[in-house]
Amino acid sequence: MTALDISLTVNGERVTERVEARNTLVDFLREELALTGSHVGCEHGVCGACTVRVNGEIVRGCLMLAVQCDGATVETIEGLSDSGEIADLQAAFEQRNALQCGFCTPGMIAAAQDLLKRGDVPSRDQIREHLSGNYCRCTGYHAIIDAVESVAQQRAKGRSP
Ligand code: FES
Ligand code: FES
User: Fold this and answer.
1) Which atom in ligand 2 lies closest to the alpha carbon of residue 108?
2) 137 in ligand 2 pocket by Cβ < 6 Å?
């Protein structure tokens, strides 16, 4: 068993830990840092439940090794929530019943924010396409698309003079 020391920034805090080389990023976040908002579903890159942001880009935490994040900046759903960056998405998901069990929701919101932070108002098809790698077993997706679309429109209104 090989263990390596890594240093990274997680949700704005510097973290230095010894990790096993085979540990995935999502397991590291959940088990070593107790950041359990990132979920583990399929464990092979299909469901999107483990979506987190690394150096500003969303990744599948189950397909990335923790050691690959040495020196990186990682943001989880906890960090996105604490900063207020996704407060409108969280409110819209709640208002529009875009979640039931909530298992997919952290990954879904992280992926939605990845699309919306580009600043355009995406079409429903573009929203569907961007979220197509995030599976939900409960909602049938319409409410999720509605929620993301409504936030895109609200943000655009907020930007207009
Ligand atoms: S747990 Fe990572 S994509 Fe499903
Ligand atoms: S709300 Fe249950 S999996 Fe999406």
Assistant:
1) 4
2) yes
Q: What is the pLDDT of residue 148?
A: 98
Q: Please choose from 109, 139, 142, 144 the residue to mutate so as to test ligand 2's pocket, defined by most ligand atoms within 8 A of CB.
A: 139
58-108 pLDDT per residue, tens = 999 999 999 999 999 999 999 999 999 999 999 999 999 999 999 999 999
Tell me the domains of the chain and their CATH numbers.
3-80 (3.10.20.30), 84-159 (1.10.150.120)
For residue 80, give the nearest of 101, 51, 42 by alpha carbon: 51
How far does residue 128's CA lie from ligand 1's centre (Å)? 18
**Alpha carbon of 42 to ligand 1 centroid (Å):** 5
Give the pLDDT band of residue 1 (cuts 50, 70, 90): confident
> In the structure encoding, which two tokens stand for residue 99, read together?
């979640």
**SS3 state at 10:** strand
